[in-house]
Amino acid sequence: MESHNSTNILYLLAAGAALGGAAYMANQYFPELLNNKTPIKVPASSSPPKKGKYNSDPDAPPPEPTPLYITPEQVKTRDDRPWRPFRWPYHQTMSIFKLDVNHWLDMDKYYYDYIKEKERVFHTYGKDNFDHLPGSEEACLELMEMVKSHMLKRYPLLFTTEDNGVHVKNELTGETLDFSLPLKLDPLIYISKMAKEDFYIVLKDEEGVHRLMAAAVPFPGGSFGIKHKLGKTLDVIHTEVPYYEAKLKPSMERWFAKMVPADLVERASWYISWDHRLLLNSVYALKESDKVESTVPPTEFNVRVERQTLRRLPKSKAIIFTNHPVFYSIEEMKDEPLVPSLIRKIIFEAPEGIIKYKNFESFRDHIVPYLNKLVDRQVDLGLIQEDTPVKTLPYYPFAHFLKESDAEKGWNNPKYATNYSETFKKEISVTEKLEKETYDRVEAGPNPFDV
Question: Measuring CA to CA, how many Å separate 350 from each of 151, 174, 408?
Fold first, then answer.
């Protein structure tokens, strides 16, 4: 089953502005509405992120990051903020939170793996995943300069320069990037050599319609990229998105209209697969109605979190979406109260359109015995009770141990240390056959964006 998961970023952030706030307000100001009849064991320090106020001044400058003096050696063992974006009830919306600019482009121990995978995708698929249309040049250059400036200011020991940014050395990869004019590379490539995130650039046309005009998207997860989407309106891109026309479109347009460069927001989406690949996950490489192979151990299943941000550039007024996928195994979350219960409930009881879109039916019967055991284990350990209601946790959208650390130390799981780098490399070494088979099948089918 082929999904168009790479289109998620183009609507989910804005949609939650109108609808996601209600869940946040209830959690922040009326916690008794969300309290369980039987308390969950959660550290006292846990709390949801603050929503914050938005800037109404369109001329206010974008915020600048503060330096974080971590070294390349520290990055090798560093995890960034631990996301747990599980909600119940599950609706086709989400909470949006005000983004601290320091977290716009994050840093973790998989940075080098992601940059190397970007190189592989570019050299293998080229414009299928990295391209721009005429009219987007100014926005691409502005974004390149913003990313360069952010990396130099936020990570002064990881990105260094001796000539005011004309040449920048990436101390993590050892590569020196030459920004002297005329540029030697496409701005999107410079961006992709500095940041591990995917980038989408959306511009308003002369008729006031938003269109995807440029993108560097090597990690879509559920589709092969952008060649059928560039130049399309957001309405066309969202053809296969559940409930878009009825629930999401109006909120998105209102949000775009009021965005200013000083306002940055973030949120997270998620789905489940049994691998760590970034371009194409196994769950979206399946043919229609196929199921996961019975030989795949349930302990190998991961939640792929899509950490997403949204901001507006001050000069070109382009809207910039970023997406950073990161994997959390169900096994490493097994002792976090209610997490197995939430996953089990969502994969069986979410709205039908969501179940189909995320391909839950392809694996849920396979992993439900495993999830049942984890839920029973939490009851036995006293982490939850049998009658504990399954609902959004009070520290949503992060893990409860977020407050136990900070940016300088990173947010490694205090109980189950995890590093899937070697597994990821092995999966990538044999992935091109799967990619080609899936790509050929998709290309042979109808193009949903050809309207």
Answer: 39, 46, 38
Q: Is 436 exposed, middle or buried (0-12, 13-18, 19+ CB in 10 A)?
A: exposed
Say whether 168 sits in a helix, a strand or coil. strand
CB within 8 A of 393, min separation 6: which ones? 40, 42, 84, 86, 337, 338, 339, 342, 400
**In whole angstroms, what is the distance from residue 166 CA to residue 86 CA?**
43
- How far is 72 from 83, CA to CA, in rounded Å? 23
Residue whose token pair is 């039987």: 38
Question: Which sequence spans correspond to the domains of the chain?
Answer: 5-332+392-444
Instruction: Tell me the percentage of the chain whose pLDDT exceeds 70.
Output: 82
pLDDT tens column, 32-76: 333 444 445 544 444 555 555 666 788 899 999 999 999 999 999
Beta bridge partners of 210: 204
CA distance 252 to 156: 36
Examine residue 48 and say whether the peptide bond preceding it is cis (omega within 30 degrees of 0). no
Q: What is the pLDDT of residues 204-236, one digit of tens each?
A: 999 988 999 999 999 999 866 798 899 998 776
- What is the residue whose two structure tokens read 């507006």? 312
